[in-house]
Specification:
- The protein has 143 residues and is mainly beta.
- The chain is 5% helix and 40% strand.
- The protein has a single domain, classed as Immunoglobulin-like (Sandwich), CATH 2.60.40.
- The strands form two sheets. The protein has a five-stranded mixed beta sheet with strand order 2-1-4-7-6, with no helix packed on it. Strands 3, 5, 8, 9 and 10 form a five-stranded mixed beta sheet that branches.
- The chain is globular.
Length: 143
Amino acid sequence: MTTKPRREAAAKRPISITAVVDAVGALAAGNMNGHLYMYDTNKSGGSAGFGTEELRTSAKRGDQLLWNCLALECEAYVAIDDIIIDHEICEPERKVYPGTDVAYWTGTVKKADAGPITYQIKFKLGTRDEPITTTLSSAIVGQ
């Protein structure tokens, strides 16, 4: 009896996670509560919580996550300063698009079967020296 060779798994597309930040509101309040709207590109895969601070990104082991942020107000400066997550699950790394100073963060999901894996994001806003960290947590949830 011969067995057929296993097919290689199809390449997984990256899941883009976008944080839309109301920088003016967050700076005035000194926190992100009510001033952060999270989205990802995997709604059809089961992600939930769009437009809230508690996005639930559905992901599998091996999926690549790409985090970026946008300012709600076009004149405001916002940037991700750090992503706080268990490095046994995902190890985010800051990168810059070639030829620009536009940064994004990327990480590969190492395992996603341990229930919701929460994370927090630290944002640099305006001219404030200290980053503001999300109070509520978004999460990676297994599919």
